[in-house]
Amino acid sequence: MAVVVAGSSGVPKSGFVEVLVREQWHKVLANLNEEALTLSCEESDGVSDNVNSNGVTNGSYLDNNNTNSNNGPQTVRTAFTDHPERVPEAIANRKRCVKVCKQEIGGLGISIKGGKENKMPILISKIFEGLAADLTQALYVGDAILSVNGMNLRDATHDEAVQALKRAGKDVTLEVKYMREATPYVKKGSPVSDIGWETPPPESPRIGSPPITSPSSSDPSSPTTQPSLSPHGDRRCIPLKMCCVTRAMTTPDPENRQLELHSPDARHTVVLRCPDQPSALSWFSAMHAVTSTLAQRALAEVIQNTARTGIGSREIRHLGWLAGKTESEKQSWRPVLVVLTEKDLLLYDSLPRSKEAWQGPEHTYPLLATRLVHSGPDRGSPHSGTELFFATRTGTRLGIETHLFRAETTKDLSLWTRHIVNGCHASAEMIKEVTT
């Protein structure tokens, strides 16, 4: 069950959601603030998933009090440091019993992976130096835990193993067997480290970076500190400036509990799934509010940067992301950056990053030759009323071109409708003034 902590404005917001990585859903902790969304494979202060790992977690390190320990170990043994060739041949594929005395802070001091649901044994994936398991000098990353104090874990799920280790008491006897063939599995990074989002600064998220907590910084262009990966788990921090937040655009969502985040360069998409429809709506509303606010800042920056020449001598009136398609592409929505000037409707397939790129939109439609022909629910949709869209028709040398644009909220639909109608009227008045 997701746990949410949010203010009246919906920000900040925290809770457990699922992220789609390599066609599989993975549970992660999501933290949203006024600037960024952070996904991490860890628990957070004030947010609990009711799992007391007692120092044994799937990719994160917790102390015995269920809180992230600030006094935790700073060095971690992993499959990258415990090379298979350094493990004594005498212990390979042989059962061993190792006695571990839990510490008051840090517990066993290991992380585990695997489980019945993953068709893998319970494997030690990390050993934190200076803590109980490391002090035995008898455990290795890649050891399969066969039993805990005589309790068989050979067919245990990950959660069952966590609970067994939690209830094992202070003195723990682990029956283990080193599995050299499991090394590639424990070397795998956390799901969030596999999220593709490599975009140029300032939109580039950074693994291990904390979310920005001071949007009103005196120097917003100053780089954010990038701490190295900590034993508290991998994380992906995604700045939301000029990102596109949508529902059910690229991935089927029959249960209506997903949302999508598209990168400004339109190259990457993060799909999140919430436990139920109300929580999905809550997350979407909060993220949409953040991206809308940031888009207004971006609009002000673009206007300032193009103040002298505009875009091809055209003054920018409004911009934002919409889902778009032509009339012949009724089955394939895609993110479109729409820019409205006093003369034209400009469409970009990604956010331009230079003045030259702003001058070359994918499509340019004169407002004088453009009309708004529909605004409201999609009456032709198999789910009538679930999509809010407007349509434009533009006369060109090759005939009439019809574009469909989907808005995510009624407020967005109303805003775009008003801007386009007013823009079309204003462009006609400009021509009338010139010809009279």
Automatic annotation (TrEMBL):
Matching SMART domains: PDZ, PH
UniProt organism field: Pleuronectes platessa (European plaice)
Bilayer disposition of the protein: Peripheral membrane protein
Segments forming domain PDZ: 97-180
Ranges of compositional bias, category Polar residues: 52-63
Keyword Repeat: yes
Molecular functions per Gene Ontology: actin binding; calmodulin binding; structural molecule activity
Annotated localization: Cell junction; Cytoplasm, Cytoskeleton; Endomembrane system
Protein name according to UniProt: Beta-1-syntrophin
Start-end of Low complexity biased regions: 205-231
Gene Ontology CC annotation, any one: cytoskeleton
Domain PH: 315-425
Family the entry assigns: Belongs to the syntrophin family.
Keyword Calcium: yes
Stretch list, region Disordered: 52-74, 189-234
